[in-house]
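I had to read the description of the data format several times before I understood it. Each protein is reduced to its one-letter sequence and a matching series of backbone shape codes. The format is easy to grasp once an entry is in front of the reader. For illustration, here is how one protein appears when written out as sequence plus structure tokens:
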Amino acid sequence: MSWQRKANDALVRLTGFQVNRVGKTGSRAGRSPGARSPAAEEPFRPPADPATDRLLVAPVFVLSPVRSGSTLLRALLNAHSMLHAPHELHVRRLRVEFGTALAEKAMGALGHDRSDLEHLLWDRVLHRELVRSGKTFFVDKTPANAFAHRRIAACWPDARFVFLLRHPASIARSWYEAGTAGTGGTGGRTPQEAALDALRYMKAVQRARRELEGCTVRYEDLTADPETQARRLCDFLGVPWEPRMLAYGEQTVLEKGLGDWKDKIRSGTVQPGRDLPAPEEVPEPLRPMCRSWGYLPGEGAS
């Protein structure tokens, strides 16, 4: 690894920013998709006329770190007759560009800036998929959405949020294993890199939980007692409980999509989660988050 890459990786871990050459875009190969640099984020605002500007009604966003069981939760929700939860869509990465200054001026005369037009695009894409599904409510579980929770809440003022948590050390271990899969254990992230990268997602989810109202679900509770957690979610979303959510393998949800798709998911029923790490096995950088989420003995969850 070159000194430039080492320095840039350290900068990303410490600040969330990275340095790119002029004319070069995107993240380095192998790095997980995350938030755009805050400096690159343009101003955004709620729709001027929600009744006209939005087709989607009360969409649901699952905000979670990577490797926290969001694909399992998606499968359960999508098995409900009223909930359409497709694969990760990364819709916030869809961009609108003004080809000319005249086009920008014309849209400005209609009251639209770039972010307004992007919101219209995002809404139209999700609404189209919902209509095609024949269901009532749209659910998106893209983990990177946690980095843009403010913009998502501004785009859809009536959005509902589900926060999915998991033991931070389990997340980091799974993220490390995912990075080394197919490499014989010789490639991908180191355990330390996996922990620090996953921690970015955890912090983003924690910020969203502080700023947004929603329903919090723990992966460990979901795998230990899926019916109780599924009923809680149905109550929160205002839809009736359907037992077939627990036998999601009978539904077309098992078509492979973007996201984790291991044998546990393929089984079609909720499988027990792995044993929790012992306190002494928790990496030091993750200990504050473990305490905050109530995963260390004697610490209350928040």
